[in-house]
Write a structure and sequence with these properties.
By secondary structure, the chain is mostly helical. Helix content is about 40%, strand content about 0%.
Length: about 70
């Protein structure tokens, strides 16, 4: 079996749902994720974006990381 045929067979098992434009469900599958799970998802997506762009993953100290921490008022 060629690599292309193996990949074709794997794709045949992908779960696919079809919706008309504007009729997509408004359910976010991430709603039930913990903060830790969402951070991990963000890391995986960021790493994949770097890979797709052909860029190295950035390395910086915690003090110089981009982002802002927003604390809820007590």
């Amino acid at each position: 079996m060629t690599e292309m045929e193996r990949r074709r067979r794997q794709r045949a098992n992908w779960p696919i749902r079809k919706f008309a434009l504007g009729e997509e469900p408004l359910v976010d599958s991430r709603e039930d994720l913990s903060a830790e799970q969402r951070i991990m998802l963000t890391w995986r997506l960021s790493a994949e974006a770097c890979n797709l762009a052909g860029l190295p993953k950035p390395h910086y100290s915690r003090a110089t990381m981009p982002g802002v921490m927003v604390r809820a008022d007590d």
